[in-house]
Amino acid sequence: MLAVGSFVCGFHVPSVALIRSPTGQRDVKMAEVSSVLIIQNKGGGHGEIGFHLAKELVSKGKAVTILHEGPGPNAKEAHRAYGELDSSVKVLWGGDLSDADASISMLDGASFDAVVDNWSKSPELIAPYAEAAKGWGVSNYAYVSSAGMYTPEKGDFGAISETCGVKSSGQRQAEELVAEMGLPFSFFRPQYIYGPAQGKSYLGFFFDRLTRDRPVPIPGDGTQMVTMTHAADNALMIANAIGNDAAVGEAFNCATSSLISYADLVTACAGAAGKTAEIALYDPKGFEKPEDFKFKFPFRDTPFFVSAEKAAKLLDFQPNHNIAQDISWYYTDQYVAKGGLEKELKFADDDIVIGKA
Q1: Same domain, 38 and 145
Q2: pLDDT of residue 7
Q3: Average pLDDT per run of 10 along the chain, which is 357 residues long?
Q4: Which residues of 252-279 are buried (b: 16+ CB within 10 A; e: fewer)?
Q5: In this structure, are 122 and 243 located in the same domain?
Q6: What are the angstrom distances between the C-alpha of 163 and each of 33, 148, 153, 160, 166?
Q7: What's the CA gap between 185 and 164, in Å, rounded?
Q8: Which of 6, 105, 221, 337 has CA 20 to 30 A from 80's CA?
Q9: Same domain, 129 and 146
Q10: Are 141 and 214 found together in one domain?
Q11: Given the DSSP bridges, would you call strands 11-20 and 3-8 parallel, antiparallel or unpaired?
């Protein structure tokens, strides 16, 4: 094993260990990363990633600091779980992270070998944290953006790879800025996240109707495929990139490799709830929406799923979770335990969608 150090774009890259592949096909460079800063948002789809990422990094022997958006500790689902983290994990409640000077000052002059930014949504927000990371000479700057930026060609409903065209969203512009700054970046683009401390439930839509013996409206023919990824698998992929030279300069679809159709998802939900699935197919453009219309299907009308093949190849990523296998747990612990059966619901908009109004 050989340790190597270098200077790239004006800043020092920590020494790396060259690990010979058992097959002899390629060498994998692993930087010696001992400390990681996670910049964590306060909720939304990404809200649970920081928790699982901290657990994963600690298991790899890293010292972890979480700079967290908002005041705390707070009662949000993903944040209550922080009590389960190893006592070595340092959680700093950073308040308004857009006041970067104040938030960075909370680090008390500490520096880090790697940064995972799971908060920034624009180039303006990411810039001061990226500048700090550049000053620390990080080996990796992992930025969690979104697969929602992809713009596949009209009629192309296959698996989306990282080479697909993207729209110029705030997150895409943040990616571009980090790359322009010469940081050793890796971009992670998640899609439809779930987990034990989730802040958003995609399957509540289905369980709400199934448990009340209502038909479940599904757009199109119900064969559209989707990926739902456990936050622990999102975190595993990101953790596999930290210190991994193969991840530098790359974008990754941060998702599972397991696919399920909308119709099969409804059937799985029905089985977990002890109900018979009744699916009502509808044309998304086949009805008039009244002014107070609130119906919202949790996924896109057309197939929208990504390929995780690149992460499997470069990061040795293999997901440990599968939504079809997790569905009973999801129903019991995420729907029933959180009062899903007691909610008062109205389905007048459903009747408009499926033509019964």
Answers
A1: yes
A2: 31
A3: 33 36 45 91 82 95 94 71 89 93 96 97 98 97 95 86 94 97 97 84 96 97 95 96 96 95 97 97 94 94 93 96 95 94 96 85
A4: bbbbbbbbbbbbbbbbbbbbbbebebeb
A5: yes
A6: 29, 14, 12, 8, 9
A7: 19
A8: 105
A9: yes
A10: no
A11: antiparallel
The Cα–Cα gap between 154 and 164 comes to 12
Q: What is the CA radius of gyration of the chain?
A: 22
Looking at the domain assignment, is residue 290 inside a domain?
yes
pTM for the full model? Answer: 0.88
The pLDDT of residue 218 is: 97
Give the pLDDT score at 198: 76
Does residue 92 belong to any structural domain of this protein?
Answer: yes
- Count structural domains, the chain: 2
Segments forming the whole domain that contains residue 78: 33-192+231-254
- Judge whether 244 lies within some domain: yes
d(CA 116, CA 235) in angstroms, rounded, equals 10
Residue type present at position 135:
G
β-bridge partners, 115: 37, 141
- 20 located within any domain: no
Q: Using the structure block, give the residue that is written with the tokens 């994990």.
A: 89
pLDDT score for 33: 86
Does 161 share its domain with 214? no
Report pLDDT for 154: 83
Write out the DSSP string of 61-110: T-EEEEEESBSSS---HHHHGGGGS-TT-EEEE-B-TTSHHHHHHTTTT-
> Is 136 in the same domain as 276?
no
